[in-house]
Amino acid sequence: MVRNYKRTSSRAKVPIDVIQIAVKKVLVDNMSRRSVAQDYNIPFKTLSRYCKKRELLDNEEDHINQVSGVGYSKHKQVFSICEEEQLSAYIKKSSDIYYGLSPNEVRKLAYQYAYELKIKKHS
């Protein structure tokens, strides 16, 4: 086992507040993506991806300060926040009574829950 891990890539090194400022410069101040990416030392493709996320929102001015972090975007999320909390509460409760579920069983449970709620698959 490595005792002192040294990071080899520079992925996800840019703080979210810097990305937020850069996206605002591109969308509100109409600066070019390449120049803003160079000014803030952000990869061009990363800045483009965050700008496209913001452009997809209906009201840009209200959401310009809420640049999301890493992970799935909301349009690919299967469960609503309430449904997700119910599912996690069930999994925690089963763990508390010593009926822990394996990761594979949790995936099966989530599929069954989505099937019962008649949630269609997102593409």
Q: Tell me about the biggest sheet?
A: none
Structural class: mainly alpha
The tally of strands reads: 0
Strand content: under 5%
Shape, per Cα inertia axes: flat
SSE arrangement, N to C: HHHHHH
Low-confidence stretches: 60-64
> Roughly what is the average pLDDT, rounded to an integer?
83
Helical fraction equals 40-55%
Tell me the distance between the termini.
40 Å
Number of helices: 6
Cα radius of gyration in angstroms:
20 Å
Provide key terms for this protein:
123 residues, mainly alpha
Question: Can you put this structure into words, describing what you see?
Answer:
GO terms for molecular function: DNA binding. Its main location: nucleus. Residues 25-55 form the HTH psq-type domain. Helices cover 54% and strands 0% of the residues. It contains six helices and no strands. It has helices at residues 16-27, 33-40, 44-56, 60-63, 81-96, 103-116. The chain is flat, with a radius of gyration of 20 Å. The two termini are 40 Å apart. 7% of the residues are buried.
Summarize the SSE layout with pairings.
Elements: H1 16-27, H2 33-40, H3 44-56, H4 60-63, H5 81-96, H6 103-116
Helix pairs in contact: 1-2, 1-3
